[in-house]
Every structure is written in structure tokens, then in C-alpha cells.
Amino acid sequence: MYNEKYKELVDYIKSLKKVAVAFSGGVDSTFLLRVCQDAIGKEVIAITIKAPYIPDREIKEVENIIDELKIEHYFLEFDILEEIKHNPEDRCYICKTHIFSKIKDFLKEMGIDYVVDGSNLDDTKDYRPGMRALKELNVKSPLLECKFTKKDIREISKELGLPTWDKPSYACLLSRLPYGQEIKIEELKRIEKGESYLAEAGFMGARIRSYGELARIEVYNEQINNFLDKDIRKNVIENLKNLGYKYVTLDLEGYRTGSMNVNIKGGMNNE
Fold this sequence. Notes:
Elements: H1 4-16, E1 19-22, H2 27-40, E2 44-50, H3 56-69, E3 73-77, H4 91-108, E4 114-116, H5 130-136, H6 142-145, H7 150-160, H8 185-200, E5 207-211, E6 214-218, H9 224-227, H10 230-242, E7 247-250
Parallel strand pairs: 1-2, 1-4, 2-3, 6-7
Antiparallel strand pairs: 5-6
């Protein structure tokens, strides 16, 4: 576990002396929070965003992890910004600029200069306008700067006994909507309910890309054959139609990050 890359990460965090971790409860931010705790002890706090586009189950998982790690933690609540109401292509840039600016304002009163986030080396492979906002606001990304991949993070998380080591990757619910589509809270709740059902049915990490009356489901490639089971398909169709979808489809390419970015210059959806 304690290889040179890990030691470099610990030393990097120690050099910051006191930090706030932007904490989502996912694989990357949980690992980063634990490393910060090991490196600088009580000089780390965690900040989590509560917003209509963050699933309730993610908030509950955050609370559970914070209870386990016993770290000082704060929730900051946000509404959907008027500037992103119609889901523009630079939505993530606008949103992160606003959120991290507010986080930094909050931290000034606490004497904390640095916010760190869980961006890693794999995040450079897709269209990620939010990363430009992080750079402009001087948000540090220790995992990226120390060249940690998602695989590295999962392997060391397992050794550390973190419950998130094999957790599927998640993203905010806005990533389920086509660019240009108006964002409605009731639509985000519908997606959340549909994905919660899929998780309960055994398809952890499944996505529902929502196009009004049509749901395009993405599951991991190794799960596609299971999904095609007659009874499973019947139950999925019934549940999603009960949520208001008229058409329920399965994407045969399976889950991949950034699948909504296929028509964006610089977007990549082949992971």
C-alpha cells in the first residue's frame, strides 16, 4: 500500500497543512478524505453539497461515512441556478464555479485556505468543463496531481478497508438529461426513483438517460445478459412506465461515462 505514489500524496497533503475536502461520499472523495485524515489529522474538514440534483441515497451514504471516520463535516445547500435551467453544455463549469466560490467564502471564516477535490487522472479523458472552474478557483486536486487512476484508488481503498472501494461511480442527476433540455425537479426525482429501483434489482451503477417520454438505460456490459431476462425486463418496464415513461430502452453499448457528450467537441464516451 505505502508505495512511492502514496507517500507523495501524503506529503502533498501535509504541505497544505489545513484543508477542506469537497466530499460526495464516492470512491475518490472518500479515499481522499481518509488520506487527509491520516496525513493531517484534525486539520481536515469535509464539505458536502445538498441540492435537488444529488440523490437522497448519496446524502445518506455521506452521513454514514462521516459517522465512521468521525470527521468535522458541514452540508451546504444549493438550488438549481437560473443560468443552468436549460442544461447548457457548460453547465458543469457554471455550477462548479458557483458552488466552489460559495465553499471558499464559507471557509474564509474558518481560516482554511485550501479546498481539495477527488478529481483523478481518468477524469482527463472526457469532456469535463467543471475542471476549468476548479483551476480558476485554485481548488487543489491531489489525486490528479499525484497521478492516481481510478484503479489505484480502488485498490488502496480496499487495503484501507474503506466501504467505497467497489462502489459504482456516480455523477449528479443533471448528467442524465440531454443538453438544452429544461431541468425540472420532478424529472430529477423520477430519474432518482428509477435508478433506485434498478439498483434494488441488482443493477448497481445503472443510469437512466431521460428524454421526456423515453428512458435509455445503461447498465454495465457484464450485466446486459442478465437484464435481457424476460421477467427482469417485464418488471423494469412496468416500474419505469409507472414513473411516467412511455418508452423504455436498453443501450446495447452499456454504461460509459459521458455518453451525453457524444455531440460535443472534445467529448469522449468510449470508456
